Amino acid sequence: MKQVKNRTALVIGHTLGMLIVLLFLGNHFAIAQTTPGAQAAVQSAASFTGAKATKRHYDAVYQLNTDDPKIIGATLRNISNALGDPRLKGKLTVELVAFSGGWEVFNKDNQYGEKLLELKRKGVILSQCHNTLVERHIQTSQLLPYVSIVPSGNGELIIRQAQGWSIVKP
Fold it and tell me: How far apart are CA 71 and CA 69, in angstroms?
């Protein structure tokens, strides 16, 4: 019987201790939310809507060097999202450079053809690395017909970066 009383007292004491801690933390959190610094931080976060597109034009080259369907899909979505960003409307030139395993995005026997054609119609430059084609014994007839060939994917990225293009690697 004495053990039951001691255990009950221990449970009650523990519960009361936890309630005191929770009350303290709750009050501390509520105080933090109402301090001028916290209020200013909340207002600042609410008023920020992203960077301002102050330039007349932007250039971005997307690098794709993997055949991973998740990364290919993410890359194509990222390009679509950039083209749809209202801050960049009419101000953006995009190039997709594929090399190494990334050539699969331009393989005419894959599921990306329709999406790529849609991007091409929106002005996206679709570039395939010639070195990859040679090294992997890929014929240009295996590629979608609206893909351009560049001498090397890395060379394309180097040149574009020197020209001021943003390089995006999803």
Answer: 6
